[in-house]
Amino acid sequence: MPARDAPDSPFRRSWQVRLKVLLACGLTLGTGATTTLAAWTDGTEAKGEFEASTFVVEANPSAPYAASGPWSPHTEEAAVLQLEATDLTPGSTRYAPLALRTTTGSLGGTAVLGGAEVTGTPLGPALRYRVTTYDPPAGECGGDDFAGGAEAVVGDGTAPVPLTTGQDAHHPLELPAASDTDPGGPVHLCVELSLPSDADSALQGESATARWQIISTSETT
Asked: Could you read off the pLDDT of 135-145 as tens digits, one per residue?
């Protein structure tokens, strides 16, 4: 029997080269055939860098409104409404502004004012409020902002509601997106707090605290 060629002999290497050439030619000649016997394979790589977007809303209770703030993000202590409501009597009404905006670099979104968590009875349940939007350059937050045609956020033009009543979630506030260098345009709210004229005399000297939660939801991208 003839001796086999060593694996690395010139003849063996030549045969392997010819086989590869034939396979390549076969693929070329077979283009359009119904059956593919072989295919070239190749690989490449793709890389992506990912970063989550940000959505941060902050509040400003300055009265009268000051664009410089103070602005308080949700991670800090709640913004305190400047209602000056320490001397309420039956029929008293107090007003306070509240501005909301997205912080620099934030997405836009929506916000809904939830009903208040009230401590202090019996005064807390007796209090009423309503909220509307207003334009600070046109004047300070006050009774004129609740005149006919005003956009009601909570309550309406004639019927203030208990503090535990929140905004209709189907009609949220729209918070504009911020840019990389500036915060989003603020949304201005005017809050009216009142003690009904028929309030019971037993409320004299009582106190209450209300804490509203503003639920904000980012837009999708």
From this structure: 998 888 999 99
